[in-house]
Design a protein that fits this description.
The chain has about 190 residues and is an all-alpha fold. It has a single domain (about 5-185), classed as Up-down Bundle (Four Helix Bundle (Hemerythrin (Met), subunit A)). Helices cover about 80% and strands about 0% of the residues. It is built from 8 helices and no strands. Helix 1 (about 5-30) packs across helix 8 and helix 5 (about 80-100) packs antiparallel against helix 6. The longest helix has about 35 residues, at about 110-140. The two termini are about 30 Å apart. The protein binds fe (ii) ion (FE2) (2 copies). One fe (ii) ion binds near residues 55, 127 and 130. One fe (ii) ion binds near residues 12 and 130.
Length: about 190
């Protein structure tokens, strides 16, 4: 099994691809087109299902150990737990906005765009903050034993979108992300 920090870094890469997929739908909506409802719903379900249940609690555990090892190095990550709560709330807000949009309340169109964009921005800022400050500090301060212990205590939860499970509700979203990645690779 990969070590806890490489699991978290991989989650960030996956989440960035998910946010790209959401932004593609936001752009379609903003241009007056019809976003893919199935894709938007799958994204909304995933952001409720995975980060709060797996990714954020694991990061909170790593932060606890970092504080014990080097309180000064943990300082830049001081607000992390609060940020996780805020992101959890934004994910729930985003889900409510999707529901309102599905119930076809035209006045909610701007709300949907604002809420979806707020969620994307908050997630991207949060990921950048952790990649820049938190992970390097943890890599520098945690011992090999810390990393082993943390890796052992990572819950055995398969990522429902990027993991090995082939869940029906995520099939089209997974295909959307993979196809886009293939197009990007072909054009670069
Ligand atoms: Fe986080
Ligand atoms: Fe994270």
């Amino acid at each position: 099994m990969a070590n806890v920090l490489s699991i978290l870094r991989q989650d960030h890469k996956n989440m960035s691809r998910l946010l790209d997929a959401l932004e593609r739908q936001i752009e379609i909506f903003d241009a007056g087109g019809h976003p893919d409802l199935d894709i938007v719903l799958a994204i909304a379900g995933y952001v409720l299902e995975y980060p709060d249940r797996f990714h954020h609690p694991v990061e909170d555990m790593v932060l606890d150990v970092l504080r014990q090892r080097d309180a000064a190095a943990a300082q830049p990550a001081a607000g992390l737990e609060r940020e996780h709560q805020r992101i959890g709330q934004l994910a729930r807000d985003f889900n409510l906005a999707v529901e309102a949009w599905i119930s076809e309340e035209p006045a909610r169109r701007a709300d949907f765009l604002d809420t979806a964009r707020s969620f994307v921005t908050a997630m991207r800022d949060h990921i950048a903050h952790e990649d820049r400050e938190f992970f390097p500090a943890a890599e520098a301060a945690l011992t090999a034993e810390d990393l082993d212990r943390l890796t052992d205590s990572v819950p055995r939860l398969d990522d429902p979108l990027f993991g090995t499970a082939d869940r029906d509700s995520y099939v089209r979203l997974r295909q959307n992300i993979l196809n886009w990645s293939a197009d990007e690779a072909a054009s670069s």
